[in-house]
Specification:
alpha/beta, Rossmann fold, UDP-N-acetylmuramoyl-L-alanine:D-glutamate ligase, 3 domains, six-stranded mixed beta sheet, 17 strands, 32% helix, globular
Length: 427
């Protein structure tokens, strides 16, 4: 690591004890910081994370936020799921205490070349593919960030000459300071997270912070065909590289190919990775088949655009399971595609009333109280040659810990159905 003395003896409060907060707390404690953690949740998950703290010197409060954990601190580190107006952040701003994100901590310590990827859709796939092309070229690479492994959790292993392929969200970018990736990738921009950002302008402003600190020695890779992104070149100091899909490359592959070119990876290596890539978990993941009906886990689709892409990609008639916690999105935008591609929709979660209102002209709408019951209903409705698609268009936090938890629950329910029908899930 570099700059290891920077955090020594500093009084730092981490807001949020999810994966990134846990990783950051253990790292900063190991570097000699005086670490405190505050989380308004007191749940099985937060207690499980608390049990993984490596030092008894770390102060902890669960189930509340108190000013004692902010007063007199040198900085706050905020986890991605914590809203901008959370009490500890408001108290910190009142007292002019810096608030930074976990990826900011990671970047300040990281000796490797960082490639950061953001966008409304496709971040995980592109971040993974960049890691795979680097590995195929013989480079040592870490695939980190919003993809699942926190940046701070791997820093003790990362050395100079390594590479980090880092997925970053708008939430994480809101509180960067000096974060400066060598290569920044902006894949696309469409309505998302409008429960967090007051409008699309504010959402784009957060996304643009990915190139805030870049200079002429860095690269910004932009989607040439996205009207919101293609005109950003004039706002950046970095070298601009455009990508565009073609007959042979989808947009994700086109973006990765340009990143590969910047990093000196030959085209054939990239194309071979594309040919052998089987996709990422929870994104159009084929789980199994029962009597000619395919079950597909697309739990990572948490906005309208992502579900629309799934429906356009699939060639089979679809029984769609959708719903969860609303992000203040316009679900009517998918109505035309639903009418063309979907046989039936089963709604779950908090957003099902809003979804029903937005899609009310579609005649085949039903509700289910749980994901498992939705799956059983979908199984009864599906015929040979159909697919049952979990593609929620919503977050998971009303019913599940996160989209991964939701995806695992879907897969478990599918395997249970397969077992009942005497089908080996391992086949």
């Amino acid at each position: 690591m570099r700059n290891t003395a920077y955090f020594k003896d500093k009084k730092i409060t981490i807001v949020g004890l999810a994966r990134s907060g846990l990783a950051c707390a253990n790292l900063l404690d190991a570097l000699g910081a005086k670490v405190s953690i505050t989380d308004q949740q007191d749940s099985d998950t937060t207690r499980a994370h608390a049990a993984k703290l490596k030092s008894k010197e770390i102060k902890l409060e669960l189930g509340r936020h108190t000013q004692d954990f902010v007063q007199g601190q040198d900085m706050l580190v905020v986890s991605p799921g914590v809203p901008y107006d959370a009490l500890p952040l408001a108290w910190a701003r009142e007292k002019n205490i810096p608030v930074i994100s976990e990826i900011e901590v990671g970047w300040r310590l990281c000796p490797a070349v960082v490639i950061a990827v953001t966008g409304s859709n496709g971040k995980t796939t592109v971040t993974t593919l960049i890691g795979k092309i680097l590995a195929a070229a013989g480079k040592r690479v870490f695939i980190l960030g919003n993809i699942g492994k926190p940046f701070c959790g791997e820093l003790e292993k990362i050395q100079e000459g390594d590479f980090v392929s880092l997925e970053v969200s708008s939430f994480q970018l809101e509180t960067i300071d000096k974060f400066k990736p060598k290569v920044a990738v902006m894949l696309n921009f469409s309505p998302n997270h409008l429960d967090r950002h007051k409008d699309m302008r504010e959402y784009l402003k957060a996304k643009k912070r990915i190139f805030l600190n870049q200079d002429a020695s860095d690269y910004l890779v932009l989607n040439k065909r996205d009207p919101a992104l293609k005109d950003l070149a004039g706002q950046a100091r970095s070298k601009i590289i455009y990508f565009a899909e073609s007959q042979s490359l989808n947009p994700n592959q086109a973006a990765v190919l340009e990143v590969g070119s910047i990093l000196g990876i030959d085209k054939e290596t990239c194309l071979e990775v594309f040919r052998t890539f089987k996709g990422v978990e929870h994104r159009l993941e084929s789980v199994g088949e029962i009597q000619g009906v395919e079950f597909i886990n697309d739990s990572k689709s948490t906005n309208v655009e992502s579900t629309a892409w799934a429906l356009e990609t699939l060639k089979k008639p679809v029984i769609l399971i959708a719903g969860g916690r609303d992000k203040n999105l316009d679900y009517s935008a998918i109505l035309d595609l639903v009418q063309r591609r979907v046989k039936s929709i089963i709604l779950i979660g908090e957003a099902k009333v809003k979804l029903r209102q937005a899609l009310e002209s579609f005649p085949y709408l039903e509700d289910a109280p749980t994901l498992e019951e939705a799956l059983e209903l979908a199984r009864r409705k599906a015929s040979h040659g159909d697919c049952v698609l979990l593609s929620p268009m919503c977050t998971s936090f009303d019913m599940f810990q996160d989209f991964e938890d939701r995806g695992r629950a879907f897969k478990k329910a599918v395997y249970s159905l397969m077992t009942k029908e005497k089908i080996d899930p391992s086949n």
